[in-house]
Amino acid sequence: MKRALLMLLILANLGVFAWVRWHVLPDRGAPPLAPPLTGQPLKLMSELSPNERKALASAQPAAAPAPTAATVAAVAPATHAPAATTAGIAAAAAQVCASYGPFPNADAATLGLSRLKLLGLTASSRSVPGKAKLGYWVYLPPFGSRKEADAATALLKKKGVNDIYVVADEANRNAISLGLFSQKAFAEQRQKEIRKLGFRALMADRFRYEPRYWLDAKGVEAALPGAEAFKDLGEDQAPIGKASAACGA
Hints:
Layout: H1 2-24, H2 50-57, H3 69-92, E1 95-103, H4 106-118, E2 122-128, E3 131-140, H5 146-158, E4 165-166, E5 176-181, H6 184-196, E6 202-209, E7 212-220, E8 241-245
Antiparallel strand pairs: 1-7, 1-8, 2-7, 3-5, 3-6, 4-5
């Protein structure tokens, strides 16, 4: 009995296998054959003939493909960034110019020029026509004649006024000079003394014509010193100042 059941089970399995093989699975067919190989077989460099080696050496390499619009667009931002950075550096190092003066004489201008060059600045000196203040002149205005001027001079000397003389130059002919003073306070004191004696004494600034000196400097704005750097080289009546100037003017 058991043997009959075993044989029946084997026959059932064979039937299921046959049904799946011919009815469920599609016919896949035979696998396609690979295409036949064409061309010449590979050769080593040592196996090539002289003519084949020469032809291989003269062969031109393939040209690189042209860049596309997308490639250019991707590179563009990286191109602009360094340009902006360079512009910022150039702006920070921009050169500016300034002029200093007036210096009263050539020696003072030379000393000021050396100070600018010690700061690493490009600097030069120049001279322009000008006048320097001598001080203050106390005088009596011109008389109508030399005789009148001489009489007034004699009278002043009798009253104890010394160091006076009659002016002979064309501009102030027959005026009486009562003194030149470097300080205004002394000139005012002299003027009061003469007026107490009954004479109309006047006071005026006195100048002499001579060149004045200026320094021109060029460099980074932060390196240009202020006018106070030359305070000791100027005059009380004409202190040294600083003015912006157009570079190359």
